Amino acid sequence: MRFGSAIRFWGILLSGLALMVLRLGMSSQSSAAIAAHPGEEVPFVGPPIPPPPDDSTRTIVAALRRGDSIDRSLKQHRVPSHQLERLYEALYAVIDPAQVKPGDYYEIAIDTSDAIRRFCYTPHRTPDRPIEVELQDGQFVARQLQLPLERRVERLEVQIKYNLANAISAAGEGGALSDALVDDIFGSVIDFQRDLRRGDRLGVVFEKLYIGEHFVRYGDVLLAHYEGERASELAVRYAASEGEAAYYNASGHSLGRMFVLKPLAVNRITSHFSSQRFHPVLKKQRPHLGTDYGAPTGTPVWTTARGQVAFAGRKGGYGNLVEVVHPNGYRTRYAHLSKILVRQGQRVQQKEIIGKVGATGLATGPHLHYELIKNGRHINAELINASHAVPILADDLLSDFVRQRDALVHVLEFGSRTWRFASSSTAAPL
Ligand SMILES: [Zn+2]
């Protein structure tokens, strides 16, 4: 099956409907594969539960402003203070006071005798998880609710002008979606800073979770197709076993790799790997057995593969160094760090933050020196994933995968309303 031809309808789609919404009306649990982006405005959703119809009860609805505590806000709204201690006791048994943030909102119902009947607190980033405190037999009882989210599958198609995040944002979608594509889905196979070209195209079929008409957060990306001058890849979300969804290319090869391409979120390579040997007479350049990434001091550095910290400390010209041992005879080194955030012996996951960029040791300015070593020999980290064969889905899953892939590609191309998932556990049935 070829996917070059799968996209011949791009022109029509781009000139026509840029975004197609399929309301599948599924109710979802908390399928929060993508967290809301920190910079994103989450709309005010309003009180999730209407106030009691009793006229003798007054209800106050308010949002916390910057610098507000719940206590300050309630007192500003002249809520009688005699019950507040008990209210907080119940509330903070369920949430951590540190989670209270500006933009969160609450609703409080007070009866004619100035007694609090009900208090409902809604974190603005997780409006599907309000905390309700009610008076039961003279006691305040708090519980966290889980409101049903509507899951909608949407389709997005963009042509790249400058960069991926920019193109996605111009199409009205948030940074969390581009982060998921760049870092997680294509993170081991496409280097978007190196390989992205103006005119490249991206198509995505993805989930958005709503309460009513209000977007809450992204669900899963189901399909992503990047078609570029230098790099092209199809990514299909598929669960090979219960609860273990991952991304596969068109032929069923996993897009996950032992190593992600980069140890940090910036990609200005200031010095490439070079095995050129030092020649003392000709005074030629020393070999550079790593890749240097220019980045501001403090930029987080992550492990490129899971493993165990073999060294964390100061080491000569490396300055502050973290060395990690990985399966199959691999080691990675992260040098010149301003801060080390792991200890020797600690187990680390792929993409776990282990330190921060700095200029310690022999460094003229802040950068990360990253080394990859296989069985004692330095190798070029920029090429690591190109040469690695990856497992393909087992035969018995492959036909199921192909059905799901084709259904999703069909949604991307035609936005068919009759689209249904194949019998996979990746998504809830319609
Ligand atoms: Zn270097």
Q: Which value, in Å, is the CA radius of gyration?
A: 26 Å
**Which term fits the overall shape?**
globular
CATH architecture field of the largest domain: Roll
The total domain count is 3
N-to-C CA distance: 27 Å
- Helix count from the secondary structure assignment: 7
- Indicate the proportion of strand residues: 25-35%
The helical percent reads 10-25%
What pattern of helices and strands is seen along the backbone? HEEHHEEEEEHHHEEEEEEEEEEEEEEEH
Report on the biggest sheet. Answer: 8 strands, antiparallel
The chain-level structural class is alpha+beta
CATH topology of the largest domain: Nuclear Transport Factor 2, Chain: A
Number of strands: 22
The hetero molecules present are: zinc ion
In CATH, what is the class of the largest domain?
A: Alpha Beta
Oligomer: single chain
User: Poorly predicted ranges (pLDDT <50, ≥5 residues)?
Assistant: 1-43, 416-430
Average pLDDT taken over every residue: 82
Main features:
7 helices; Nuclear Transport Factor 2, Chain: A; Glucose Permease (Domain IIA); 430 residues; single chain; binds zinc ion; six-stranded antiparallel sheet; disordered N terminus; alpha+beta; eight-stranded antiparallel sheet; globular
Tell me what the structure shows.
- This protein has 430 residues and is of the alpha+beta class.
- The protein folds into three domains: 5-39 and 150-256 and 393-414, Nuclear Transport Factor 2, Chain: A, CATH 3.10.450; 58-144, Nuclear Transport Factor 2, Chain: A, CATH 3.10.450; 268-383, Glucose Permease (Domain IIA), CATH 2.70.70.
- 15% of the residues lie in helices and 33% in strands.
- Helix 4 runs antiparallel to helix 5.
- The radius of gyration is 26 Å and the shape is globular.
- The two termini are 27 Å apart.
- It binds zinc ion.
- Zinc ion (ZN) binds next to loops.
